Amino acid sequence: MAGILVVAEAAADGVSASSLELLGAAQQLSSQGGGAVSAFVAGQGGAQALLQHGASTVYVGTNAALASGMAEVLQPAVQAAIEQSGADIVLLAQSSLGRDLAPALAFANKTGAAMDCVELKINGGRLRATRAAFGGNARAEHTWTAPLQIVTVKGKSFDAPEAGAGGGETKTIDAAGAARINVLGISKAETTGIKLEDAAVVVSGGRGLGDADAFKMLEDLAATMKVAAVGASRAACDLGWYPPSQQVGLTGKTVSPNLYIAVAISGASQHMAGMAGSKNIVAINKDADSNMVKVSKFAIIDDYKKVVPALIEEIKKLG
Amino acid sequence: MKSAGGHSAPPAAEEAGYRVNIIVCVKQIPDPETPAASFKVDEAAKKVIPAQGIAPVVNPYDPQATEAALRLKEASGSGKVTVISLGPDTARDAIKHALAMGADEGVLLNDPAFGDIDNFQTANALAKAIEKLGGADLVLMGRASADWDMGVVPTGVGQLLNIPVVTVAKAIETSGAGLKVERVLDDGFQSVEVSLPAVVSVSNEFGEPRYPQLRQIMMAAKKTVQVWSAADLGLGADEVGAANRAMPLEALYVPKVESNVEIIEGDTPEEKAAVLAQKLRAAKLV
Lengths: 319, 286
Prior knowledge:
Structural class of chain A: alpha/beta
Helix content of chain B: 10-25%
CATH topology of the largest domain in chain B: Rossmann fold
CATH architecture of the largest domain in chain A: 3-Layer(aba) Sandwich
Strand content of chain A: 25-35%
Number of domains of chain B: 2
Oligomer: heterodimer
Largest interface: A-B, 87 and 80 residues
Distance between the termini of chain A: 59 Å
CATH superfamily of the largest domain in chain B: HUPs
Largest sheet of chain B: 10 strands, mixed
CATH class of the largest domain in chain A: Alpha Beta
Number of helices of chain A: 9
Shape of chain A: elongated
Mean pLDDT of chain B: 91
Number of strands of chain A: 17
């Protein structure tokens, strides 16, 4: 029996933005013959949004223990939703929860989970999932021989569907797993200024800057744009030039801003893995053959020490 | 304290002190700092062609897992750190790196059948090896391997051994008979407590791993590295190999990057900056 189950995550005003993107992915697969779209969410609060955005059935986890948000507690409830819906495709967000829950479901069902997928399609009635591998240097496409096909979806890979009337139904599931992990507390990350992942513009520096002081210049450039945050390559962070919390890349943050300005960054896969989703890339680099220049929309081949201060003045002039 | 999967596990918590038996899983991968131009794929074989002159490295998260193991061992005053790697002969170097950092023994899981396995089979082989070692109080791994970057094997090993899994740890300390772990979440941090045995995956936020000194590297050469095949782990031909994958790899390729870069022209850096600013404004990017 075919069908698609979206594992949504509740948020203050319904469900998370990534949950709605999952419904967008699910609708696309459904239109290719993937079957009906259902969704699971812990708590009644998210059901309405899921119905309005295209889920025909919403399974609401009602057990109070689900509030911990831990994968081991949610797993039996989601398993019940899989079985009740008859879904053979399960979509989760590549979030803290999805990273834990997708493989847990996969291993329990003797199948695989394809993580952080960017493209999904139905091919001969079965799912084919595309994801980046080797730091974005390669693309890998997976299929499943096991009946159940589980994926997590990379953020911003699909558009959320338009909200409609939402004529579907809700069902409740009371299951919850035993908590072997005891949550003591949660704290929000400290952010000074704009959070790197949320910034519309990211200005990043690499090893080619030559010293830590150069980051002051990048901060000045970011300040002229008001919506910008400053990032750094792993090499620059390893050298102690900028805090590791601002590292963009495979072992750092993943960003997909509207504008990414890469200053003196060559573009090794380690770094590209964290920013390849940027909508527009500008490179300021001495090396015209560097990978970063190749993937850019605009590039200046020159010494950043002269270019960046001039760019700051020019952007100020634009007002 | 119970030990994961073991029948003859050593008594871990003793009256006299905390004796801890830790297993660290490490992986050897192509160097993620390889320039994009040197990265090539054999599309027919669906494999990465090793880049000329660029040696494979230890997965960058794994030394942090080893560091976590060594700190817990040191804090306990006694204990043992065993390092396991599944991979080709060269993966011995990843084990040696952990041994040079201070791990006590190594096990290489090496079998031609392991060449084309999926993450379910990888986790299964590691779980079988952990059982064969008599179990452990704690299994530590990097949060993901930077080659395939799935990050699912820690969860798989925990599930197969039926012990809790705490992922993406930035700090680990002993707490009573268990551990207190600080996890990295999407938008903050979570503090959790877990009893042992458990699997914990370690993130880059954990901090700098120690760097092996020459004397330790030489000492590591004398430490034992056992080699176990699929058969040694009790894995039959129907359990490992490409034919038995639940999630086969259908294609592996380098995405075509069409360079549409516009190189900004100008006589001086200042002039180029002015042109760029105008273009960015025209594109409504600033």
